[in-house]
């Protein structure tokens, strides 16, 4: 058995030398610097312990710009009388395509005559047979990208508060809406109403910001989600983030503690295709008085 292993290791060294001459550029073959000397020491003293199995990788140019396939090689001590352990991988291929590529490589290697070195044959097979997998991957990526790009969802939140008066609070509301590219409105007075519409993550961030640290008299009464393949801007009901103030008739003194005119607000909602929201916010059906 020792003689058979010695002969196999001698063939392995010859093959490595051949590969190094065929792939002389830096980085084409990655081989531990002690791997070959370890085998050589064993060949000088075959009665000692077996050296570690030869292990290295080869960067294979498959003819596609910026694409390299790494062929990892592990040689059993009795290779080439037994098959080498080979694995091809590339960042340009997803897992299923790498599996298919390696299945084809293993099938090819098993069809070769036993007892002959075959790593260069494996390199050549990878070089000649990887492109179809890359083309399949491009097609699948393009299809996936189209599916992701064409679908967006507009998120719209209807927020109710007991009142909105403080200037610093109103500033926070308008600054946050502008920063997050949200449209809608803020209705100042008692009660107060806010509507924001835009991307879901932006609406949720707006809601988190204005509630902090602890706005007690506020709640999100209703949420609408509308999916589109034409971009969310086509679904917005409001062209900007508006400042609404509807004051009822009467003198409320220096505090400016006024109730908003619900009739004017209902008319505003209907003008923006949102009349149904009135009942959700206030619990009663909105009706405009005859003029």
From TrEMBL:
PROSITE patterns: RWD. Pfam families: Prp3_C, RWD. Residues 14-133 form the RWD domain. This is RWD domain containing 2A. The lineage of its organism: Eukaryota, Metazoa, Chordata, Craniata, Vertebrata.
